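Section 5: illustrative case.
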């Protein structure tokens, strides 16, 4: 059963869509999110989730991958074709290749079951805080890239580059701190607000790989994001 949909934002919270077919897990997530002040609706299948996304326009989606009408990965793929809506995958698939697959398709974060509802709420808050925060107005340039913190856009020449929330945040953080080498563990802390025990460093590696691909950055001779072997990543401006 799908819960009643809410329309519009309120001062107390933003809209979250929870896509989860297990009734108990779905209820645990909904209770935690509503207690945190979010407006929530839920769907137990990808078909219902797609319908809610088109009508409700939520601010973020919490997505299970094991759905009765197909793999949640397919839903995420279809969502990423035309939408940069933040997505947090919440699933029992904990193998590293599964995490990398989810991140590669466009998940902004990946949390595995069993999970702490408080940790899930924290991760969601961190993502949404960056989306709606009052970012500085000054444009940043990185070579031929123009980064607009307020509009959260990146252009290369006259071409707009579509990034997910966490891809943009990663690029903005590195570009705001040129010349500084950041280990993956520090990037987890600064960008994802997660320590290395709670967040997999593979998350950073995969986001850097995906970001480079979108920017047209050759890993062998990178223009934008450079690797300092054995230490981490940096950008030069």
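Designed sequence:
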């Amino acid at each position: 059963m799908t819960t009643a949909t809410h329309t519009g934002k309120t001062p107390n919270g933003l809209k979250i869509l929870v896509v989860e077919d297990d009734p108990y897990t779905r209820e645990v997530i909904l209770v935690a999110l509503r207690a945190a002040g979010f407006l929530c609706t839920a769907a137990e299948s990808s078909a219902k989730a797609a319908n809610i996304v088109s009508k409700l326009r939520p601010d973020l989606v919490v997505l299970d991958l094991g759905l009765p009408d197909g793999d949640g990965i397919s839903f995420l793929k279809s969502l990423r074709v035309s939408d940069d809506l933040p997505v947090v995958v919440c699933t029992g698939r904990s193998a590293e290749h599964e995490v990398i697959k989810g991140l590669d398709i466009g998940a902004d974060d990946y949390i595995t079951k069993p999970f702490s509802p408080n940790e899930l709420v924290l991760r969601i808050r961190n993502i949404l805080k960056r989306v709606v925060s009052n970012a500085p107005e000054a444009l940043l340039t990185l070579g031929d890239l123009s980064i607009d913190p307020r509009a959260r856009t990146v252009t290369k020449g006259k071409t707009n580059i579509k990034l997910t929330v966490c891809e943009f945040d990663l690029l903005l953080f590195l570009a705001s701190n040129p010349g500084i080498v950041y280990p993956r563990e520090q990037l987890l802390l600064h960008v994802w607000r997660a320590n290395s025990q709670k967040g997999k460093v593979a998350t950073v590696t995969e986001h850097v790989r995906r970001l480079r691909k979108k920017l047209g950055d050759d890993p062998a001779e990178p223009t934008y994001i450079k690797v300092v072997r054995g230490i981490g990543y940096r950008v030069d401006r």
